[in-house]
Amino acid sequence: MGALIAWNVVSADGFFEGVEPWDLSHHEYIWGEDLRRLSLDIGREAGLLVFGRNTYEGMAAHWPTDTAEPEIADYMNGIAKLVASRTLTEASWQNTEVTANIIDELRRRKRADDRPSYVFGSATLTHSLLEAGLVDELLLGIAPVLLGAGTPLFKGASGPRGLTLIESRAVDTGGVLIRYGVPRGPEEDDQAG
After folding, report:
1. Among 5-9, 121-125, 147-151, whose mean pLDDT is lowest?
2. Which residues of 13-34 are buried (b: 16+ CB within 10 A; e: fewer)?
3. H or E stretch at 38
4. Which of 101, 118, 144, 164 has the greatest number of CB atoms lying within 10 Å of its CB?
5. Dihedral of CA 64/67/69/70: which sign?
6. Alpha helix segments (H runs only) across 46-93
7. Is the pTM of this model over 0.90?
8. Residues 98, 111: contact at Cβ < 8 Å?
């Protein structure tokens, strides 16, 4: 069964975007050779990228014409992608499918493929997948900047949930990568299988 890994960059004060939608300027504080290598590693190992509608639209507008990072653009454009949306009915970015029932679709896909799937961005989707017990790991890039305001990555959870540290390491730009395992409750084990 493939793991579902939620990957996001957040400011040191927990915001995944600034006050305006798609204000990702805090990424500049952590982006460097270490994150570039991580991105390429994700491209080599992942079987699927998963997005919410808003993140999908931003990614689909950027990557097909990106020339700054051709190796990353190649895998972003070529890999299988799944969009969670109740309003989109089709997607124009190559190798993309849309589903209105992301929970059932990801359960099916996790059983069918041993490769990891990655959720990029998509705070609302990540919250829903955490609540459904589908996220196996959180991979967070902590950018060395305080934004002071913006959209928090984590919404109010239904209760405390302990995480298991898998790895933490500094990156070349002064940021930190943290990888946490997300333990399942007994009721989630029944649903996942």
Report:
1. 121-125
2. eebbbbeeeeebebbebbbeeb
3. helix 33-45
4. 118
5. positive
6. 53-62, 70-78
7. yes
8. no
Average pLDDT over residues 53-80: 94
Task: Grade residue 188 by pLDDT with cuts at 50, 70 and 90.
Answer: very low
Give the pair of three-digit tokens for residue 58. Answer: 């931003």
Strands 96-99 and 137-143: unpaired
**In sequence order, which residues have a C-beta less than 8 Å from that of residue 177 and are 6 or more positions away?**
34, 38, 139, 140, 141, 142, 167, 168, 169, 170, 171
Distance CA(152)–CA(18), nearest Å, equals: 9
Which among 16, 35, 17 has a CA at the least distance from the CA of 176?
35
What gap in Å lies between CA 24 and CA 132, rounded to an integer?
Answer: 27
**CA–CA distance, 89 with 109 (Å, rounded to integer):** 20
CA distance 40 to 31: 13
Phi-psi region of 171 (alpha: psi -120 to 50; beta: other; left: phi over 0): beta
* Entry field: residues in the chain: 193
User: pLDDT for 32-50, tens place per residue?
Assistant: 999 999 999 999 999 999 9
pLDDT grade for 185, boundaries at 50, 70 and 90: low
| Strand pairing class (4-11; 117-120) | parallel
- CA dist 76 and 71 (Å) reads 9
Residues 6+ apart with CB under 8 A from 130: 6, 157, 161, 182
